[in-house]
Amino acid sequence: MPVTRILITNDGKIVVEGIGYVGDQCLIDLQKLKNALQSLGIDVDIEMQQKKPEAYMSTEVAVHENQ
User: pLDDT class for 67, splitting at 50, 70, 90?
Assistant: First the structure.
C-alpha cells in the first residue's frame, strides 16, 4: 500500500515523499494533498519535484514483480 511521508523542516519547508507508489499515482495524490491544503487557505508552491525510479514503472510490471 502506498504511503505519503510528510516532513516539516525547522525552517518551515515541507518535504513530501511517496513510498510504494508506481507510475504517476504519486503525482495524482500529491495534487490532491496540494488541493486540500489550498482549500484550507494554505498557499502551496512546489520548488522541486523529483521522480523515483518506481515512477517510470507501469502498474503491470509492478504486479508481475510482486508475484
Answer: low
